[in-house]
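Bug #77: duplicate submission created two jobs. Keeping one. Sequence:
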Amino acid sequence: MATPDSTPQPRICLIEDDEIIGESLSDRFRLEGFDVDWCRTGAEARQALATRRHAVVVSDIRLPDCNGGDLFVGLLAEAPALPPFLFMTAFGAIDRAVALIQAGAADYITKPFDPDALVAKVNALATRYGVARNGSRGGERLGVSPAMERIAETLPRLARHTETLLITGESGVGKEHVARLFHHHAAGGEAPFVAVNCAAIPESLIESELFGYEKGAFTGAAKARRGYFEQAQGGTLFLDEIGDMPLSMQAKLLRVLQEHRLQRLGGETTIAVDFRLVCATHCDLKA
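Kept job's structure:
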């Protein structure tokens, strides 16, 4: 029987020609529990990606023998099932990075960057794309910085004593990763974890998406549908960018939190719901 120690470490393909940056990032990723293939050129990266399985690719855009973005687009045309690509880009090349996201890249970070922010993005990508860290479920390790270690130590206690949690922080620091780890401690890996980006749902649809609706509740409602609260029954509902939710909906959300019951759009009866709620935002909600 395999033990956690025998589980292969996830591998990162780092494409960076600068010796100082490349060595520094390689060391940091290894501290985080990754194996690292450090490639100085696009040609080396192409060879590494063809011969080994990687959890995440972290690439500079400017390389000595090619453009990192062109390398990605070319690889995507040859093998659509690529590992997630995260690009490191100078401020002046943000437009190019955004175009690469639209083409299928997973994320980017602007130089100069905080190494902790890069690590958080890489951990989130590895978790999102199904890579378990060091044999644990869901990538339990948050990082090696003192702040992240304190959060990791606090989460098991929070999971035992609270059903609601608010996570604040800038975009890309790993708020969803923290939410998933909280869920793992609170409800276990078998319970549902339902992640919702509030900013991506039109205001006219958010009530029906959260609370569900009955058949005939509105034009096009051909059958009843469970909302996100019901889908998270017995598990965790993660509402990302809660600060973008309309105030009127926040009031309805508070009532569900207080009563643990909801009424579907077009419904006449209330439904009991059992869930934990984790909200996240990059905004200062007290401002």
